[in-house]
Every structure is written in C-alpha cells, then in structure tokens.
C-alpha cells in the first residue's frame, strides 16, 4: 500500500479522493463505525469551493446547501434587529465564488465519501490505530484488534486528539481562546422560521443561537454558557437551555439529533511531519469555530499534500518535494489560527479576510518569480479564474496536472494554453496542481529547470 490515511473526516476523505484520481494505492481507516453524524463544520469558504470543484464534488455541495441566512437578534421575545453574517465580497471573473456556502458537516462528508467510492477508494470503518513503527522503507500501523497494515506513508487526519500525533511524539502549542464552555447541537424545534439565523444574546455575554440547516429539518444550536458550568447534552438539558435563553418553551425542542461540548482553543502542532508520517487537519491545528476556518484549512492541507504524494509515488519526483508540505501548510495554519481567534474575539470581521481567496505561498521554496518587476499575478499567488480562447481556466486546471499559461508545453503532465488572461498581467505562468502559481517569468526561459526540480518530466 502506498498511503494509509487515518481518519474519515473531511481531511481524510478529500485526500483519499485526490490520491485515488492520481492512481495512488491508498486506504482510509476510521475508528468509528460510520461517518461523523453532526453539523459542526458547516461553512464552506470560497477557496474550498474551488478545491471541491477540482475534486468533482462542488455541484453536489452547492445542491446540498445554501447561503448563510441573515442573523436576527432577539431580546425578551421580540425581534430587535438583523445583521448580515458576512461582509459582502464582490464576485468577479477571477473569483466566481465569494460567499461561504452552508452545508452540514455530515452532508459534506457523505458527498466526499460517495466521490471517493466512485473513484474506487475505500474506507475501512471500525479500525482504530493504536501505534506506529516506521523505518526507512515505510510505516507499520497497529490496530486495536491486533492486526497491522504496512504503508509507504501514513497521514494523520484523526482529529484534535490524534492518536497518530501522539504515537510519533509531536506536541501542540496553543492557548485557550475563551474560558467559557460552549456547546453545539443539531435539534428540531417548533416556533421559529427558517429564514434567519436566530440569536438570543444574554446580558452577561452568554447566549444561544439557532441556525436553520439547508436541506434538512434541523437547526444547529450553538451556545456559550457561564464560566464554571457544565453543558448538559441530554434532550432535557438542551430543552432547559433553550427555554432559559429564548421565548420558546422546552417542549418546542422536539428532537435532539447530535450534541457536543467544547472550549474554544487555538493550537498548532510543533511539526507537521515526522519521517514518513504527516499530520493534517485538526491533528495539526485546532481552531475556534468562529470564522469557519478549521474545516477549510484542513481540506486545503489535503489538497496540498495530495499532489505531492502523487508526484513522488507515481511520477518519480524527488523526495524533497514532500518537505514543502510542512513548510507551506504550517505557516498557513498558523495564520488561520490567528484569524480564527481574531474573529472569535470580535477583532476581525467575517468577509474578505475569511474567504481564503488571498492565501498563497509567496515565500515557499517551490515558488520562483523570475520577473524583475512583476505586475498582476505573481508566483505564489492563487491562480485566478478567467478565460483564454473561450476556455475557462478552472476547467483547464481541473485534474491532477500542471497548467502552463502563455507558452507552448511539450512536457507530459503539463497542459498548455497560449496566453494568460489580461487580468494576470504580462508573463508566463506555471500553475501547480493545487491551483497556485509555482513559477512565473517574462518568457519560458528557465522553466525547464524548474520543472525538473519539481519532478515534472
């Protein structure tokens, strides 16, 4: 086996999809008996929508969700005002998706799982990893039932309490974002319309909110409770909480489908790689849910790692390419942790800062900008959408290949278009398989050296 992916959350499933389409022999294992049942990570940011378009799941994601509803503020049983959840970001040709799309996490995972199976991938449920041993050739993973599996690489996508992270001795450095206890639950209620995200703030900074989840009959209940209290996650406990903070009666909560409690924390793994073991998603970084960055940063970990594993395992790229995963993603995760914490504390507005369209890798060792005075898109930037000779760029980018804009290519694995859109500015641009500009120049001079360095022949 080439790759063992531990954890069938969004990170593990997205990575499984990317490896499957590259012909990499990968297995996803999950300690639970099925997919995660809750709505927790419900915000799909625009950059992740672009990733999902490439992975072939965006149509299903869009059909399963909706834009975020406006927030309705209540006080003493009366509606006292409304406000948008996000500052508007104008759509334009380079960025066709500019608003977060709300999909319950359980539904996102169902869609990813179906795509993985469609591509021939597999998830083995009820398989708990309890230990690892690695050598120069691969990794042996031990399971709770006493069996072992051998793989060339292992990816820990098994969440904030990652057993794989502990097994390889990687610590996490972080801080408590808020000392108050929080809870999140999926409930069914009577007496609220589904046009708004209903917020019921308390006078002491606590409160609850009920957000309708598109495509379901459920609301997601989020609550911030007084310090020192312990959330009661039973149906009776949820009913008591709703009756205490809203004008609804306890009996208006008709069903509790899932519930969890947490204390918001920001933490970053000290390393994202130990030998042949990689950390991704919550195993590598834990966010406050404010701002909707956690799931999205996690999916993009998978998107970054997938093409690099494929290049090394299938295309003969140098092993050093895998070193750039930690280089690029740990810095990105650190920035996103700061953003999430800023949103939680009210220091940063949701909007342009949180849609993740401005993220890139300008300082990466994989980034080469050879122009002396570049204008427009630069190496390291996300490659915007656009049109060249009637071809949409995101259609040209779709798939596991590199794309060259502005010069002919005669290299296997590189698709070429004769020009870049005017919005890019003058130059020749080589777009990585994950949609970032890896190399840019005034002409194609020097391109061959770069391609050889990253293993494209």
UniProtKB/TrEMBL annotation:
Keywords: FAD, Flavoprotein, Monooxygenase, Oxidoreductase
Alphabetized InterPro entries for the sequence: FAD-bd, FAD/NAD-bd_sf, RIFMO-like
Keyword Iron-sulfur: no
SUPFAM superfamilies, per database record: FAD/NAD(P)-binding domain
Keyword Zinc in record: no
GO molecular function, one term: FAD binding
Highest taxon of source: Bacteria
Positions of the UniProt region annotated as Disordered: 360-382
Positions of the FAD-binding domain: 2-337
Cofactor: FAD
NCBIfam families for the chain: PRK06184.1
Name of the featured protein: Pentachlorophenol monooxygenase
Organism whose genome encodes this protein: Streptomyces cellostaticus
